Amino acid sequence: MPTPPPRQPQDLMQLLTRAERLAARRLQTVLDEDGCSLDSWRVLALLADGEGHYMTAVAEAVFLPPPTLTKLVDHLVDQNLVYRRVDPLDRRRILAHLTPRGQSYWRRISREVRERWPVMNDGDDELLRGLLERLVDTLDGASAESAR
Predict the structure, then answer these.
(1) Which PROSITE patterns did the record assign (predicted)?
(2) Which of 5, 36, 106, 148 is most buried (most C-beta within 10 Å)?
């Protein structure tokens, strides 16, 4: 039996892109019912830990440029889901937090997403998570080495 040709990077990119777009579409369907965008959901998910996060860290975590994040957070503030405070240790920096209303909203939409998210076979979720984390670490390592 002949060995299959090695997978090309474009094959992996095609699969990753397709999976990301299908997942985003599935997630957005649930979020639309609550008037929440995917970017807002990402911000709320990060802030749900109750720690408060610097705006620069939020921008990086949710893959948005800082000006776009500022507009999004302004919108979340207007909805009374998020508030911003000056960091008491570094008055030049701003921390973002969920309001009590934001916490309730996050718990509700998070529950709805979990209930409607497709479940793979036993152990596959963790296997996929582990493989994706390894891929990210490998790509980050390769990026760091090429930057030297």
Answers:
(1) HTH_MARR_2 (PS50995)
(2) 36
